[in-house]
Amino acid sequence: MRATRPLLFFILLLSIVTHLSAQTRTPFYEPMSGKDQWVDSVLKKLNKKEKIAQMFFIRAHTDKGKAYEDSIQTLIHNSRVGGLVFFQGGPLRQAVLTNSYQSVSLVPLLVAMDAEWGLSMRLDSTISYPYQMTLGAIQNNDLIYQMGKEIGKEFKMLGMHLNFAPVVDINNNPDNPVIGYRSFGDNKYNVAAKGLAYMRGLQDEGILVSIKHFPGHGDTNVDSHQSLPVLNFTKERLDSLELYPFRELIKQGASGVMIAHMNIPALDPTKNLPSTLSQTIVTGLLKEELGFKGLAITDAMEMKGVVKFFPDGEADVRAVIAGNDIIELSENTKRAIKLVKKAVKTGRITRERINQSVKKILEAKYWAGLNNYHPINTINLLKDLNSGEALSLNQHLVDASITVLHSDSLLKALDTKKRTAIISLGVTELTKFQKDLKLKIPNSMLFLMSKIGSATDMNAMLQEVKKYDQVIMAIHDYRKRPQSSLDYNTPLKIFIAELAQLNTISCVFANPYTIAGLPGIEASKSVLVTYQNSDEAQRSVVKILTGQMPATGKLPVTINSFYKYGDGLDYFPEPKPVLGKISY
Questions:
Q1: Could you tell me whether strands 420-425 and 470-476 are parallel, antiparallel, or unpaired per DSSP bridges?
Q2: How far apart, in whole angstroms, are the C-alpha atoms of residue 250 and residue 174?
Q3: Is residue 352 classed exposed, middle or buried when 0-12, 13-18 and 19+ CB atoms within 10 A define those classes?
Q4: Per DSSP, what are the bridge partners of residue 526?
């Protein structure tokens, strides 16, 4: 059965392309009425330095105080940069600040954000959509397309035009310290299909994308924020695996590609040269061999993976030479613009090279509507960013991801009238999951055990729990970013194995890779995985346990010999009688 999956995913990818093609917007680099006239008129107004500055996108925050905000405004006014990348802060503060920044810019700014799971990745008071690993479990990719459109709408409400998403790295290394839950999974066909749906949703809503991290950051064990990863794979391996999602999305009109900071000897043997600075990779492979016509965008140029071997602004110059169109987050933007201008004067960089990128950036600005710029309307902004439709979609996405990994025997037999122990592990206070489930199963007792609990306390709890007819065990990871292993002490991991041997349903509210570090959990009568510890996930599992909802998710990664890619039962329960009601 597994041998047919590549064909099935190809058919799935083709069906998504067919379904969405009728409503897909023309890429910004294709002919558009009025575009050439506007681009040419702007180009004529820019001097040499201002053209170079259009290639530089600078960092912006709304949580660093007025002095910081004023310094950015001065940089925009004096250096004439091309765009902003917003980070942490609040949506209303960002809207007000964006209006202010746009008012002093010579050319309207292209405003970007790294918002893989929506605005909440950076901003408070906004919706946090599922991580891409969670989305990787969903079988209905139209839901992901709808999510892309909804995130696109929220971007436009905040006057933003470019999302550094989706991640199309294939996470085939469970120990990857920087991708992991940010990837759709370890199957190239599934990653391509999910990435295409997300990309199309954003672009159909008028938002530029930046698929990342080219040519593939999924099989690394070094974080390029801290050092330079080395990919020692053959060109054939890279071409058949890592490059596959990029190639497919480029064919379908990807508007942007972000280049990673990785040393890849099979593609460019230059020692310690990051892919971002390699003309062979950026121009030769991406633009010429793959035929990419959109925006080539560097990963952040302040990262150690690029400045470690090319300090003092040399990385910025080489990034331009390599063929990047947007230089994101230079360590020192004023210095970088000056150095690039000097490189043009000395002949290291041609004027035509600069003009090519600037024209492309202006074309993207036209496509995004910046030729007819309007300030952001802040009236009812927070309410509009948290609409009922968006919140409902978010819950549907999570509902569709929940995966029954191992047997539905106790799920089917679970009796809401029997004495039930409901246990949450890794926490110090009652969880939403317990509170909601208690309303559905009144004849239950709630138990807690922290991640550093003592063996004595666990043994006492085990003896008490053995008195109950059925056990529902919830394993929580409350860290902000769900890593591939739980930070539980050894006694707690042993305790989980002991609880699993009872009449137990185990519910894992964590990264699926954490299951590999919980030997014995497979003894549970049923095992469910939710991929992350969100309120939406806890609601979903309550609905599944009480027969109010099916479970149709499929595992997007291989965990171990027990649980492999594609595993997951299609569980369609008979409704169970429940005494309580929960309002969602």
A1: parallel
A2: 27
A3: exposed
A4: 505
With contact defined as beta carbons under 8 Å apart, do 290 and 246 qualify? yes
- The alpha helices in 308-346, defined as continuous H runs, are 314-322, 333-346
**Beta-bridge mates of residue 113:** 86, 163
Measure Cα distances from 367 to 26, 36, 38, 370, 439 in Å.
9, 11, 11, 8, 51
Over range 423-436, report the average pLDDT: 98
Residue position matching structure tokens 């062979």: 280
What is the three-class DSSP state of 319?
Answer: helix
CA dist., res. 44 & res. 42, Å (int) = 5
Give the strand order in the sheet containing 211-214. 211-214, 256-259, 295-298
Which residues of 329-458 form beta strands (DSSP E)? 403-406, 420-425, 444-449
Do β-strands 403-406 and 526-529 pair in parallel, antiparallel, or remain unpaired? antiparallel
Within a 10 A sphere around the Cβ of 265, how many other Cβ atoms?
A: 15
Sequence-distant (≥ 6) Cβ neighbours of residue 438 within 8 angstroms: 422, 444, 446, 580
Position of tokens 């169970």? 576
Question: Quick one: angle between helices 141-157 and 188-204, nearest 10?
Answer: 40
Residue pair 234/188 in contact by the 8 Å Cβ criterion: no
pLDDT tens-digit profile of 554-582?
Answer: 999 999 999 999 999 999 998 766 555 54
Tell me which residue has tokens 């030479």.
321
Which helix (H) or strand (E) segment holds residue 544: the answer is: helix 535-545
Q: Is 156 exposed, middle or buried (0-12, 13-18, 19+ CB in 10 A)?
A: middle
What residue ranges in 130-288 does DSSP mark as E strands? 162-163, 208-209, 211-214, 256-259
Burial of 494 (0-12, 13-18, 19+ CB in 10 A): middle
Q: Are 90 and 123 in contact (CB under 8 A)?
A: yes
The pLDDT tens digits of the residues spanning 504-533 come to 999 999 999 999 999 999 999 999 999 999
52/324 Cα distance (integer angstroms):
12
Distance CA 222, CA 213 (A): 14
Report the half-sphere exposure of 378 (CA within 13 A, side-chain side).
Answer: 12
Q: Is the whole-model pTM more than 0.70?
A: yes
508 three-state secondary structure: strand
Interval 303-345: pLDDT, tens: 999 999 999 999 999 999 999 999 999 999 999 999 999 999 9
pLDDT in tens, 137-193: 999 999 999 999 999 999 999 999 999 999 999 998 888 888 999 999 999 999 999
Where are the strands (E) in 120-163, listed by range? 162-163
Task: Give me the DSSP letters along 486-500.
Answer: ----HHHHHHHHHHH
Residue with tokens 């972000």: 258
H helix or E strand, kind and range, residue 9? helix 5-21
H or E element in which residue 538 lies = helix 535-545
Q: Which helix (H) or strand (E) holds 526?
A: strand 526-529
Separation of alpha carbons 140 and 108, rounded Å: 38
Cα separations in angstroms, 517 against 185, 405, 534, 568: 19, 16, 21, 19
Distance CA 213, CA 441 (A): 46
